[in-house]
Amino acid sequence: MLYELWQRVSREHAAEIALTHLRTRRCWTFGELAGTPARGGSPGGRVAFPQGNGPEFIFTVLNAWRAGALLCPLESGQTPPELGDLPPDFVHLKTTSATTGEPRLVAFTAEQLAADVENILPTMGLRSDWPNLGVISLAHSYGFSNLVLPLLLRGIPLLLLDSPLPEAVRAAASAADHLTLPAVPALWRAWHEANAIPPNVRLAISAGAPLPLQLEQDIFAASRLKLHNFCGATECGGIAYDASETPRTDGSLIGRAMRNVALAVNSDGALEVRSRAVGQGYWPEPDANLAGGCYRTSDLAELKEGEVFLRGRAGDQINVAGRKVSPEAIERVLLKHPSVKDCLVFGVPTAAAGRSDIVVACVVGKPEDGSESLRQFLLAQLPAWQLPREWRFVDSLAPNLRGKLSRAEWRTKLGFAAPV
User: Fold this and answer.
1) Residues 19 and 28 sit within 8 Å (Cβ to Cβ)
2) Residues contacting residue 383 through CB under 8 Å, at least 6 positions apart
């Protein structure tokens, strides 16, 4: 199915530029991509593992579709997983980002994979005359659905940029009259601080991690460019999108449901996602939270007049002497402080009898008097029991290529693996 859809796209757009590798200045039309011999190596049997962020990734995808092989995209240097015997209707495996535990594989049929791009295009308004500038990982669900699938299934041209450094992004602006730029908050912040956001970006998308309200507002004030917040998950593709043309005023707002996506909040307060793009299930161990066209997330949510507000993760909630607080609620207030560039809050169990946590704040940016001004700032907006007891100041929270921050990883990195 996927290769047939690609063949139709390549015929309809045969003479148009499809793929451009900006470092080498090499371009391929849709017709050239369809007509070249197999590229990027043999699929190697039932499974192909495209890696990297260059043209070879695209060639490997087309090879696999042509040969009827299953795709399992990997980050550069990632070891291919042991897969065992796979059901014949599986055509694609995605790796979860492991922000809430060990990474898992999510299986998709061709129809489910194609449905995600069918939802994304009309919701975001992707256009063939606004080519995508590819700086995010092609292997990650976000990059595959926003860059690879629009190219191969809908004819949206792709400009591949090897480096996301500000000077490289600034130079890439000359490659097209108008650009669509999907990225993660950490990259948007770096480009904004370096004054490197190309002036010809017509559609700016931020996903992969929560978009800080202040960053969204600062970029809009500087360039009148609206960052459109996009929320998705490996298990189900796009969930919600902020299509408004002005900055949000509430950082917990993630937008409205994507086209063809139905959202609900279950009895536990967690968000449930239903659409044709929801994956077939986890592999090799199934889980009732992903089955039957429904993904039951761990995100606590509220739906109001069609808008979706995230209230934290069920598993991330901090228990302070029997009272629960979401770390995101503390982070949202901390990020309003002028000295705080980024932050991450988590709970650490105490060794005392009974389950109780202490609140730890990891902060990028330090006021002159250290944590005291931050404590006073929080105290004016939060009850005293929610204030962090431990503070750690770091140069950077350094999210990975997917823009993800793992509370578990930072808890261990900062020496809080054992109870305090």
Assistant:
1) yes
2) none
Please give the pLDDT value at position 71: 96
What Cα–Cα distance (Å) separates residue 149 from each residue in 251, 313, 338?
A: 29, 29, 40
Q: What DSSP designation does 146 have? A: I
Sheet holding 47-48, edge to edge: 47-48, 70-71, 92-95, 105-108, 281-283
Beta carbons of 18 and 6 less than 8 angstroms apart: no
Alpha-carbon distances, residue 166 vs 20, 170, 239, 364 (angstroms): 19, 6, 29, 20
Residue 143, classed as helix, strand or coil, is: helix
Structural domains in the chain plus CATH codes: 2-312 (3.40.50.12780), 317-413 (3.30.300.30)
CA–CA gap between residue 27 and residue 19 (Å, rounded):
6
> Of the given ranges (171-175, 348-352, 357-361), which has the lowest mean pLDDT?
348-352
pLDDT at 100 over 50: no
pLDDT computed for residue 193 by the predictor: 95
Task: Give SS3 for 325.
Answer: strand
Q: What share of the chain is helix, strand, coil (3-state, %, to 5)?
A: 30, 25, 45
CB 303 within 8 A of CB 263: yes
In 91-238, alpha helices (H): 110-124, 141-143, 149-154, 166-172, 185-193, 213-223
Give phi and psi for 115, each to the nearest 5: -65, -30
Token pair listed for 14: 């045969």
**Residue type at 34?**
A
Which of these, 320, 369, 70, 336, lies nearest to 212 by C-alpha position? 336
Helix axis angle, 110-124 to 2-12, nearest 10°: 40
Tell me the CB-side half-sphere exposure of residue 213, using CA atoms within 13 A: 17
Rounded Cα distance, 420 and 409, in Å: 17
In this model, does residue 116 exceed pLDDT 60?
A: yes
pLDDT tens profile 292-306: 999 999 888 999 999
- Work out whether strand 290-291 and strand 262-265 pair parallel, antiparallel, or are unpaired: unpaired
Given its phi and psi angles, is residue 254 left (phi above 0), alpha (psi -120 to 50 degrees) or beta? alpha
Torsion (CA) 165, 167, 173, 174 in degrees, nearest 10: -130
Q: Which residue has the tokens 């330090």?
A: 366
